[in-house]
Amino acid sequence: MPVDLSINYPAASRLINRRQLIGLTGELLRKCRVAEYTVSLHLVNDEEIRSLNRTYRQKDSATNVLSFPFGEGADSSLASLPVKELGDIVISLDTARRESVEYCQTFQHRLNWLIIHGLLHLLGYDHERSRKDEKIMQAMELDLLAFLKIYRRTPMPHLAINVDHVATIRQARGTIEPDPVTAAALCELAGASGIVVHLREDRRHIQDRDVLLLRQTIKTRLNLEMGANREIIQFALDLQPDMVTLVPEKREELTTEGGLDIVGQKKKIGQTVKKMRSASIPVSIFIDPDFEQIHAAGDIGATFIEIHTGKYCDAASDTARNQEYQLIAAAAEEANRIGLRVNAGHGLNYQNTAPIAALATIDELSIGHAIISRAVFTGIDQAVREMLEIIRNAQF
């Protein structure tokens, strides 16, 4: 394995997307033409990196990254080394977090830069030797960061559009327009990969007629969001949508608030999943980024989870948003590890979608309110195309 990753930082060990880091570091090795070599990547806290600085550099302070080449002359004689190993990169997650806030970057972007910086040191680049060497190393860093932007994923996640709020406008006047079925067709023409509707028990927006017509007319995929109540379950079984997403549902809420508690309702939700699976309808379950809920979803036979991104979207500070982002990244990776596919949604808009879209573990983004709101000013075709452009250009 070309990348050996260790995390000696219990508070963050569940917040790191291990597969993503290993994958992108491996791609960097290939880009630098040393894919046959191994690199060891160690993620630690400030205390440990400070100890390493004291021991090896006679500096009693924490730094962001340290590199330890496998042997002297590693920059010029890699081919002659008896063991194909570049060396070790040690990164302080504490410092990386502080710097991501200071430089107004996502935590993942800062971590990517530190990996690149450490790798270039292993390859013999040194910005401290001279001003000329500093410029050469900076140019390499920019080149590799641009490479990661292109590498981020193949293919990009799908965009499924929730047209509930077209129906919300219609129901406000009790008339026949605007028609969510027409809106769905326009979304598909603009490039959407699926249509999402939530048939609520109180029928506050989407109506039975809407869902029945959508089943007959859409060309992509119909995802029916629903609560696990008897009437809606039977409706779904009769309808045969391309998939269902089980969500919590309370009459007093404006929109879905938080993820479904599978752990506390395992028997009831499990029975619903079983009914859907017996009808060959894949089931997704809308949950918070919580490992216990993820494993419960796997236990009862779900095919997908949809990670609730509301706390990430509503975060009041960059630090809080980074923390929520890391929870989502870790949750998506864990779900993939146990065989679940992963969608994500709730509160995503034109400012906060890109980091979520950049996660290689995400299959599909479900976005509704932001796109319908944008469509009021730009038209629905343009609103969909603008969101697709954000997703296409998303980067780690």
Keywords:
single chain, 396 residues, alpha/beta, Collagenase (Catalytic Domain), TIM Barrel, four-stranded mixed beta sheet, 16 helices, elongated
What integer is the average pLDDT? 89
- State the CATH topology of the largest domain: TIM Barrel
Give the CA-based shape.
elongated
Radius of gyration: 24 Å
Number of DSSP strand runs: 12
Structural class: alpha/beta
Count the helices. How many? 16
Overall tally of domains: 2
Order of helices and strands: EHEHEEHHHEHHEHEHEHEHEHHEHEHH
Major sheet attributes: 8 strands, parallel, barrel
Helical proportion? 40-55%
Question: In CATH terms, what is the architecture of the largest domain?
Answer: Alpha-Beta Barrel
Are there runs of 5+ residues with pLDDT below 50, and where? none
Q: Report the portion of residues in β strands.
A: 15-25%
Q: How is the largest sheet built, in terms of strand order?
A: 5-6-7-8-9-10-11-12
CATH class of the largest domain: Alpha Beta
End-to-end distance: 22 Å
How would you describe what is shown here?
The protein is an alpha/beta fold. The protein is 47% helix and 16% strand. The protein has an 8-stranded parallel β-barrel, surrounded by 8 helices. Strands 1-2-4-3 form a 4-stranded mixed β-sheet, with helices on both faces. Helix 3 (93-102) packs across helix 4 and helix 15 (369-378) crosses helix 16. The radius of gyration is 24 Å and the shape is elongated.
Give a short summary of the structure.
The protein is of the alpha/beta class and 396 residues long. It is 47% helix and 16% strand.
